[in-house]
Amino acid sequence: YAESEQNQSIQYRSFSERPKHMDPAVSYSSNEYELIGQIYEPPLQYHYLDRPYRLIPLTAAKMPETRYLDGQGKIINGSGNSNDIAFTEYEIELQKGILYQPHPALAQDQNDYRYHNLQADELEHMTQLSDFSETGTRELVAEDYVYQIKRMVHPNIHSPIAELMKQYIVGLDEFAKQVATVDLQTFRALPISGVQVLDRYRYRIRIRGKYPQFKFWLAMPFFAPMPWEADVFYNQSGLTDNNISLDWYPIGTGPYMLEENNPNRRMVMARNPNFHDEYYPSTGEPEDADNGLLADAGKKLPFIDKAIFILEKENIPYWNKFLQGYYDMSGIASDSFDQAVQFSGDGLVELTPSMLKKQIKLQTAVTASISYIGFNMLDAVVGGTGQDARLLRRAISIAIDYEEYISIFTNGRGVAAQGILPPGIYGYELGEAGINTYLYDWVNGHAKRKSIDAAVSLMEQAGYAKGIDPRTGEPLILYLDTPASGPDSRARLNWYRKQFNKLGIQLVIRGTDYNRFQQKMRSGNAQIFMWGWNADYPDPENFFFLLYGPNGKVKNSGENAVNYQSPEFDRLFEQMRNMDNGPERLLLIQQLQQIIRQDAPWIFGYYPKAFSLYHHWFHNLKPNLMANNKLKYTRIDIEQRQIARQQWNQPVLWPLALVVILLILIVLQVLRVQRQRSRETIK
């Protein structure tokens, strides 16, 4: 690192893969959100410290006003009956005085935009955004949020949530059909019937029916503002030819801006000099004060001047640099796990003495995600809702020992799943009430996986005694489709073979490239497969919809990858999905869990557990599995970091001294040999 950086408040992190998209209408990947979440600001955000997760205003002046309307557009008082609600309206009022980061798209010259009509000679030397000498800014207004909603359905943008939002936002589908061939000026002027700019700081979104989860989308980058000037600027052919685009150089109102984008080396986030007033939270969970997470309560954000992300393709060099203090935080790769973490006699996770000596701290959190094995419910053997197929799926679910898998392949970083909902999602239940009784027994206060004998018994009931397929008289053969490859994957796949072999089932691995695998999933030609899901927002609807019949992947290209279809499940899901949290909704969630535990379209697998290490100079770090804009809350004590780096990286001089001694001995030996030869010559 440059000496000039030593006294700056800089956070040092790494990345291993170049972010593909920086356009918030398109981006839908965690490595992209790690960057754009600090740049773009949707109207809402998650409270950094509170749990359960709670939405609060970000650029909004207050939480959106919500109104329910009947079919004639009349307001329904109260929360209303879902059957009577034809529309829901969200009215959002913005804070005044919020400015965009300095950007050439907003630079003006005599009341006209300086760089909106660039000529060929001006473009000749423009190879990166910093080549533009002038920048400008302007105030955030309601139209910017409405313009971004329009961009979701622009034919050249391909937003991954466009089709979903067409189902909900009134008039969005009709708008999409109108804008297929219009220019940008017309595109900006065309209205969406369900999205209106009310005045400079207020806008309204009307959606069909009652969909309480829509407020969670208002905290995602998809609904961040976009100034129309950015599209005009970036759509100039000379800039796109030089790869100067919104996918490479974002523009936002957030605490940071992308100062340097060199994905072959490093990416630099610098403090936005125009960032509006925002302050560190003053409340949190009861233990947050004891953990030092409220020491900065009420202080202005952000604390860090820069975040430098450095390309690291290999785990070992990255890990060594973290131990030397050159990275402020780190995950734990499998080959470094034993060096960092150990398990106590009662199974608790502890840092090793070498980590404690450096005052390194450990943070763990069960992620809001699930890793599972899916059965294609369209398959003639493992699919369908017949009793024999259901018993076969349950037997396999018992036989695959995910407790062992977690121990062997994830270093204990996971929790065996009892159902579809991970911890932290409303409806997840602890203790005996939350176990999957088809696969587990409650023994001495803990869930214990049923014995393999129970699985063998289910196989016999299903007509597959000793794993023999009655149709052929031979061992039952099942097929696992996967794009996985490499030595680590081979070890895991061999482990799966052994699990199926407990039941006498021969598992055949059908490996393929990812594109071919995706095609198999879309056409329904995969029999058994491994899959996973990360929550978009903290609501059970975001998990149960993965098994909702109309979301079937083969029929409707949805996220129901197993093509599960249950009229009872679908009926209860439709009741549950738009309800507010409460006893009535919880009862429906329990019923939904019971149906899919009984039918077993998934082997529920496990909820991954994230382990993070960070140095003692890194403050205000708390796992928040929903927020994308966490960088602004963290703080670096640069003096402590500099002291530690100096202590941990003292030059080791004894090898040099050893080399000097060896050289002296060699020289003396050479001189001795020369003298000996001289004597012999004289004689």
- The number of helical runs is 23
Note the beta-strand portion: 15-25%
How far the N terminus sits from the C terminus, by CA atoms, comes to 63 Å
The global form is globular
Q: Total number of β-strand segments?
A: 27
Report the sheet with the most strands, covering strand number, pairing sense and barrel closure.
8 strands, mixed
List the uncertain runs: none
Plain-language structure description:
With 683 residues, the chain is an alpha+beta fold. It is built from 23 helices and 27 strands. The strands form 8 sheets. Strands 12, 15, 16, 17, 22, 23, 24 and 25 form an 8-stranded mixed beta sheet that branches. A 5-stranded antiparallel beta sheet has the order 5-4-6-8-7, with helices on one face. A 4-stranded mixed beta sheet has the order 1-11-10-9, with no helix packed on it. Helix 20 (567-576) runs antiparallel to helix 21. The longest helix has 29 residues, at 654-682. The termini are far apart. The model has no long low-confidence stretch (mean pLDDT 92).
